Amino acid sequence: MATFLYRLGRGAFRRRRFVALAWVALLFVAIFGAASAAAPTSGSFSIPGTEAQKAFDLLDQRFPGMSADGATARVVIKAPAGQKVGDPAHKAEVEKIVSGLKSGPGADQIASVTDPFQAQAVSQDGSTAYISTKYKVSGMELTDKTRDALKESGKDAQAHGLTVEIGGDALMTAPETGPGEIVGVVIAAIVLVITFGSLIAAGLPLLTALIGVGIGVSSITALANVLDLGSTTSTLAMMIGLAVGIDYALFIVSRYRVELAEGHERDEAAGRAAGTAGSAVVFAGLTVVIALVGLAVVNIPMLTKMGFAAAGTVVIAVLVALTLVPAILGFAGRKVLPAGTKSKLFGKGKGKGKGKGKPARTAADGSAEERPNGGTRWARFVLRRPIMVLLVGVIGLGAIAIPATSLEMGLPDDGAQPVSTTQRKAYDLLSDGFGPGFNGPLMVVVNGGQSLADSTVERIKKLDGVVAVTKPVLNEAGDAAIITVIPQDRPSSAKTEDLVHEIRAGSDENVYVTGATAMNIDFSQKMNDALLPYLALVVGLAFLLLMLVFRSILVPLKAALGFLLSVVAALGAVVAVFQWGWLGSLFGVEQTGPIMSMMPIFMVGVVFGLAMDYEVFLVTRMREAYVHGERPGQAIVTGFQYSARVVVAAAVIMIAVFSGFIGASEQMIKMIGFGLAIAVFFDAFVVRMAIVPAVLALLGHKAWWLPAWLDRIMPNVDVEGESLRKHLAGSAAAEGPDADRELVKV
């Protein structure tokens, strides 16, 4: 593979105008498709095989016209202190809101509006009432006219002294991530400038990553309605695509500069960079793709689509790194090198590197520097004290992981919104006026007639934790009914979850519990059940892939165990901040609560793929040195000498990009951004930069052991470039003895 990538990189360099034009044309086509497509919706949400989903499917069949995923809104009205909403003046204002919603702008999207005085939606003390509004479409499909009419519905009432707040998913909009991503990109640019010492070299990874992300996100937007992709899909793809896009380009550019420093011509340096670092990019990208595509194991269509879309963006990032980056390097010339480097390393000519282009600081054997850099010094420190470094790293991450034992999972509701939002204020008003359970009513769907529905109502009334049960509402055929149950506790409480299970346990097989609260409970259970199979699949496939890369058993095993340690520690940090509230104000967490149900499995997938990036980039350079004859300890030093600085820069960039999403207004995006950023920090700086060299130092030659029988049957993917070295050696021999001098270790 290294030889193929060498030819691909050198070909892209030589045909740079054509390659660059092709990528730019593809970007414009994707942007045009996105601009021409209809705005993406929230995407249909389903959880196949769960009771809540069976109930929704039954509703679609027996109650035509009632959309199971239609948006809902609750306009909550509270009278001034000492007054009641039933007072004539206040009652008139409430009825004006009801009539305005029924006949005002956007009324064509409304399925029903209930009068609180007729529906008994007035609190016992008479101070609070709520208007329930059901829409025909989901929150993301509501027009601006409809949403604005809802927001303006209580303006007149507020002018007359009433407090009016609006809750429900009808106000849902596409997630806003704020200016944080821009800050992340700026930090990435600063890190690149410091790393490369050249504005051109620093700007190149940013440019190519933005082109790749632009193509990926625009393609997702263009296909959103056709493939029923959710509005958060493009956010995830942008988050991951931007991070890996910068990192992959960074590694190619860094290796290109090393090859130039060895004295090679620019096209040759581009080919060698693609053949060596490009091989690592391919396998690093494959681990990320495996992790994202593996989300299909969970069997939740929305999550599967998010994973496939993000994986597509990663594939684009890999292709950009292998083709567009070498092409742009051709336009950049030697400007990718720091100022003053040209005369020191290359002289004034364009010769073929017959010894005169060698860096002065390279040792005679090419394996070590006379003046050690930071990576070399750190590697030697670890080699002197491997047990101490290993213990500090493992114990430190283990301590941070302790909060993960208290993990509580759920899906956020309006109670998790910032206290300044109208949704949160409406949530609090309902809790104060009616009780916490009114924010999460349960919907019981009966597949039967009046008698079964009545008996179900009587049985549910006798259960603990039930505040109220409404009369059954039958469909036109009289063969199905809907019953609304108001729990005593808030939607995300353990008591409400127990109530759902209790209703289901004692019900007829034709009685189903659904609604947003029950759906959240089923979703969390589905994620829990899928975690271990998903972990086994992803880690197992990646283990096999890393065996091919490193031709070792212990190195992939160490990589997988290190990942598990870092991801559990990251989950511990997420629990401490978002569930316990530690340092919550620092990260903009206004309301603590359960951790989002998909967070553990999502972190396992994404973080595993990203963690393997650093494993591949760092350890392949060690493997390359070991294969070329260096001792295990010296191979570790060589790997850090060439890769540590770039891995650190890549990690800082990825952390900066993910941290940019912490400023998002959406709690889910905020939590994902924090979780990924802290996980990358733990994995890159503790696991890969400390625990990995410590373990390799203790293992010595055993780290690279592979049974002979397994070595014979495994294909040789040649990530370390041995076949490329032989190919170039053969080419040099064919050209004559002078050409031999050009060959250096790759």
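The above is record 1. Record 2 follows with the same two-line structure.
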Amino acid sequence: MDAQGRGRAEHIDPADQWVLNPNTGEYELRLTPSAAQSAVPGPRRAARGRGTAAPDRERREPRPAPGGERDARAGRDSRAGRDGRGGRDARAGRDGRDGARSGSREVSGPRRARGAAPEPEAGRRGRRPVKKKRAGKILLWTGGTMAFLLVAGAGAGYLYLEHLNGNIESVPDDGASTGGFSKDKAINILLIGTDKRTGAGNEAYGDHGSPGHADTTILLHVSKDRSNATALSIPRDLIVDIPDCPTTQEDGSQKVIPGEQGVRFNTSLGQSGRTPSCTVRTVTELTGIQADNFMVADFNAVKTLTTAVGGVEVCLAKDINDKDSKLRLPKGKHVIEGEQALAFVRTRHSVGNGGDLSRINLQQQFLSALMRKLKSNDTLTNPSKMIKLAEAGTKALTVDSQLDSIGKLKDLGMELGKLNVKNLTFTTVPVVDNPAETVKATVVPHPTRAREVFDAIANDVSFTAVKEKKAKDKAAVAARLKGEKSAPSEVRVRILNGGAPAGSASETLLWLQNDQGVDKSENAGNAGTVLSKTTLEYAPEQADQARRLADIMGLSGSAMKPGKSVTNAQGLPTMTLTLGKDFKGAGVSLTPPTKAPDVDKSTADKVQCAS
């Protein structure tokens, strides 16, 4: 890759530089020549100089004489030929000397120092570990782990890849996210596609010079146990409230961009100087779900990714001739890439009712098709394609400041790669036409169904029929609610605010004492930590009291945390009720949904034809 980037290995196929190690299921980068391989079956190993690689048990190299190790290594590198041609020379039956001469011409450096140990003979060299270079080499995790990291301006593809550090572009999250995903929690990633006309060949799409909008936005929720995921599309013409957005300026200073009420969702990005962090805040305002991280991509992501993967198969139920998107395809199955793929995900006048909601369905079908292609052996076992995908992806993607390192991206990719595409559900925010408009151009959230979808995602409810896991543990949690309940007057509890709106602890105290008869309750102020969900901690001997309070508060078994009691101001044992971010007011049940609402949806493993 490094040599090719300098234009010095024009005849090298990238696939020749990656070798699949069957012991690990991973591809290993080989940039140096090797001689003919042994006929004994086993993993391919390439030595870094002439001769064959030694077996695993013989990987130790002869030690150079004191003071000569660095110069000896320089001599070996020179003879191996850093331009990558040595591998082809070796296959052609050459002894590697041409590669050495070529390497000597192109890489300046000292020859083997006087007194340094001579090169080991062919056949006796062990494989030297490949050193990592910043923005110089790609690490690929394959063997069935695939993830999706990209969405483009008009719809895009997901891709599991490792980045070249030098290609990573990041922008501040301005405190809009949670601070980054966690391996032991559910993951929420906001994928933002901008219609900004940047990149070669995109000026012809009109709106030239615009700062862009949040044209295609998907909230990707991955369950805590990684058994399922939900991709929630947010319509660009959805009427929302955009909150005030603290935003980092180019000079590093902070500026608060004023919010707006009752405006299109797509204006949360680009307009009035709003950055992706403002789109994150708008999604939180709308759904109640705070993203852990965000990613942004433009038109070029669709074009470059589909080209790199060798095209994506789509299906049309009718002929399409859209003059605006320039998509012209007869009905049936087609393999599309590049400009044609971008036209496919941008078209809307020729599908459905010609609106943005119909285009969203088309985009979801495209994403499903791309996911299947990426998960196929045709892609996973092709080193050349994986390299091209990594290059295309890193150049098309902008990430938040919490994802600006190769290690974090790799960790995220490994978590997302645990998913099975049959359990990835695509759905859209339930909406109705905007009642304030005579000519229908925008939509508003459905008064009841939208909140049901948001609550289901927030409570990690699967939208697919996932096999129940840890049934024994689930039964034990449910059993916490069963049994005798104390009288309300016997319940002793202290109340803490652990992330609920200000004043929630006082509000709950008054409600419990005046309306529910729980007069042995007290306000203990703010908790030391912020919790996403309300919890009730109690000792085993307080189980009767805990069940009564759970019944009053509408708490689920999972909110009940058996443990140790604490003492109140009077020195008496008491339970601890900590109000989390899910608290919506005194008297509002905190029992989360256990079943997904009935909404239009599709899964990534199903082939659909756009109509």
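The first helix runs from residue 2 to 5.
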